[in-house]
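Changelog-linked ticket: S-adenosylmethionine example.
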Amino acid sequence: MTSKEYCGREYWIKENLRYTHRYFRTLKLAKIVNVMSRGKPCDLLDLGCGPETLSSLLNQNVSYFGIDIALHRAQKHLMEMDITRNPIHFHGNTFDFVVAAGLFEYMGNCSHEKYAEILTLLKPNGKFIVTYMNMDHCTKPSFPSWNNIVTIDEFKEGLSQHYHVLDFFPSYYSAKEGDLESELMRKLQLNFNLNIPLIGKRYGVNYIFICSPKDAVGNTSLGRYGRNFKNAQACSPCRPN
Ligand SMILES: C[S@@+](CC[C@H](N)C(=O)[O-])C[C@H]1O[C@@H](n2cnc3c(N)ncnc32)[C@H](O)[C@@H]1O
């Protein structure tokens, strides 16, 4: 696979079954959403939802919706769509949270167009929560299907063209690339949401970014996840149909 080739449904229908496992990243994302939603009814759209593993970890106040290129079952709250070929939408609905975990590594040169589309899916105080692999991790991670490989700084810079990056931190620190397996480390790191600059670069396995739309300047509901703000720029073209 060359750097900008995309995997299709036939690849993902098998591959995304690996994500029925409750990876630490998924536990951490669920915890963040559960804390941020503060028990209030809210809607969440999981982009690249795969087998909906996140859904089983969310509190009952969070109504779950998902989009994926390869769904395993047809359900009202799910929509099958290749988002590199179609503008992202969900029957005209908007959401309090849009989550994209382990997706943007596969977005080729579509990232900016997708960031712009996700803006239209967010309610005024909505949050975009996105993960991205730390390509600078000491194990030098690589995967043949990744077609969007940038550093964490470049990824954050791209996001910052469309969003306020309120907070970002490694989902976990580890000298190994795989999932966090030690029960002790899982317990210790579940509530540890800090970016330690040099250590994060080397040992942060993948990062979580919590973002709000650029135009939500008056947004005061940043909760415990609000810190960093930057300026807006234009977006670039994506994949032709
Ligand atoms: C690495 S898996 C992550 C699954 C899940 N979000 C998680 O974190 O456990 C990437 C997911 O994105 C979906 N995906 C990949 N390319 C896509 C595309 N072009 N449009 C929609 N979904 C896509 C895959 O089917 C898969 O479920």
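Closing comment: Example verified and attached. Confidence is low (pLDDT under 50) at residues 217-237. Helices lie at 9-15, 24-37, 111-121, 152-160, 183-190, 197-203.
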